[in-house]
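Our preliminary data section would be incomplete without showing what the modeling component actually yields. Below, a chain of 78 amino acids is followed by its predicted structure, encoded as tokens that our downstream tools consume directly.
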Amino acid sequence: MQIAYNILLTLAMLMAVLLVLVVFFTGKGDAMSGGSSGVRTSFKGKASFEDKVGQLTWILGGGFMVFVVILGVISNKL
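Predicted structure:
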């Protein structure tokens, strides 16, 4: 059980670093400006780079949350 915990902990740390890097390098610096943000959809059929980065951010964030919950359950059983 300890080996599985260590593997999941390593994967969670890797996901956290990747998530920070994706958010840091793709940030536009206008997060506090309000007004013109947001929800943008493309009806062209092909996703833009920003759409793919947004999807990657959601996947990494969701995966990180799942790993943290699993790590919490495992740590209570150790």
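The helical segments are 2-26, 49-77. The chain has one domain: 2-25+46-77. Preliminary results of this kind motivate Aim 1 of the renewal.
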